[in-house]
Design goal:
Elements (H helix, E strand, L loop, with lengths): L3 E2 L10 H8 L12 H14 L3 E5 L2 H12 L5 E5 L3 H5 L3 H6 L2 E5 L9 H7 L11 E7 L12 H14 L2 E5 L3 H8 L4 H4 L4 E5 L10 E5 L1 H13 L8 H13 L4 H16 L4 E2 L9 E6 L6 H10 L2 E2 L1 E3 L2 E5 L6 H18 L1
Parallel strand pairs: 1-11, 3-4, 3-5, 5-6, 6-7
Antiparallel strand pairs: 2-8, 7-8, 9-10, 10-13, 12-13
Bound molecules: pyridoxal-5'-phosphate (PLP).
């Protein structure tokens, strides 16, 4: 059966140009710094994000982990939002492996950590009782808040607070290019407010594998050490870097199509009284929505849509659909028809 896979933008397959670049990539041993394709990708990523240096890692999770390990020592504190990916979905890596304490603060529906809550969460570290705060982690776009774009004014305010308190800012920018396209700005207009950023090649940008950590050169040297420690030193990694270069050069602008498809999808979903969609929060490629009374719960809804060839994710009474390369306007129409049929059957 023809499948419309809306589970995640991570299901994208490489473009023909990526496959061609992978087949002919100039390779070397990247742990020796000899893979010129990796070196080219890292230079490109650093340049795009306005940072001194960059390093290729296997995944967004590895990028965030190595970044937090490079910013914080054992017993140091990192402030995170209570709904962020680092805190909820990365197996507590920096705590488990690096003895870093996550201090969580509430997240607003716009993906922000209120400045007052941030300020109150700092512990100075000069008191023998407290761990020292070293880092604030932000996420843009914010996944569980619905792919919302965290605004530049807010990011600037966090930067100012961090400078005042002498701590660093790490941006989980797994989808920071979606934020840049939605705002209509180059990505460094966002990343300028963070000391370091992780972004993913393997989500909307369609590459098969890989994320980049970008930041100051001395920080990136520490990230490289952390990457080695967690087994992430890859050898002929130019195979994947080649696809990453194509991703950065050819697939960024087209994210706008995913955003337009997500909007059409969200507007269609909002027309069903059994579904609860906050259209103001559909800003990029992610559409979260609630299943009201009269609709099946997430498990049943997901199972029923699978019968119609539509895949999505979720739990409880909240589900998620994500648009990406390979999902066309026609697929959105078909998915909405399938939703209508499932809701009709459930009535
Ligand atoms: C906001 C955010 N950060 C980090 C990650 C982790 O990326 P990866 O799956 O490559 O480890 C994800 C994955 O979905 C994400 O949504």
């Amino acid at each position: 059966m023809y499948t419309i896979d809306l589970r995640s933008d991570t299901v994208t397959l490489p473009t023909p140009a990526m496959l061609a670049a992978m087949a002919t990539a100039e390779l070397g041993d990247d742990v020796y710094g000899d893979d010129h394709t990796v070196n080219r990708l890292e230079a490109l990523a650093a340049q795009r994000t306005g940072k001194e240096a960059a390093v290729l890692v296997a995944s967004g999770t590895m990028g965030n982990l190595c970044s937090v390990l490079a910013h914080c020592g054992r017993g140091d504190e990192a402030i995170v939002g209570d709904r962020c990916h680092i805190y909820n979905y990365e197996a507590g890596g920096a705590s488990a492996l690096g003895g870093v304490i996550y201090r969580s603060v509430p997240t607003t529906a716009d993906g922000e950590l209120p400045l007052a809550a941030l300020a109150a969460a700092f512990s100075p570290g000069y008191d023998a009782h407290t761990a020292a705060t070293r880092l604030i982690c932000l996420e843009n776009t914010h996944n569980t808040c619905g792919g919302v774009v965290v605004g530049l004014d807010y990011m600037a305010a966090v930067r100012a607070l961090a400078d005042e308190r002498g701590v660093r800012v790490h941006l989980d920018g797994a989808r920071v290019f979606n934020a840049a396209v939605a705002l209509g700005v180059p990505v460094d207009a966002i990343t300028q407010y963070a000391d370091s950023v992780t972004f993913c090649l393997s989500k909307g940008l369609s590459a098969p594998i890989g994320s980049l950590v970008c930041g100051p050169a001395e920080f990136i040297a520490r990230v490289r050490r952390a990457r080695k420690m967690v087994g992430g030193g890859m050898r002929q990694a130019g195979i994947i870097a080649a696809a990453g270069i194509v991703a950065l050069e050819q697939t960024v602008e087209r994210l706008a199509e995913d955003h337009a498809n997500a909007r059409t999808l969200a507007e269609g979903l909002a027309s069903f009284p059994q579904l609860e969609v906050d259209l103001a929060r559909v800003q990029t490629d992610i559409v979260y929505f609630g299943l009201r009374e009269g609709a099946p719960d997430a498990r049943a809804f997901i199972a029923a849509l699978r019968q119609h060839g539509v895949l999505l994710g979720g739990a409880g009474r909240r589900v998620r659909m994500v648009t990406h390369r390979g999902i066309e306007a026609r697929d959105i129409e078909d998915a909405l028809e399938a939703v209508a049929a499932v809701l009709r059957d459930a009535a």
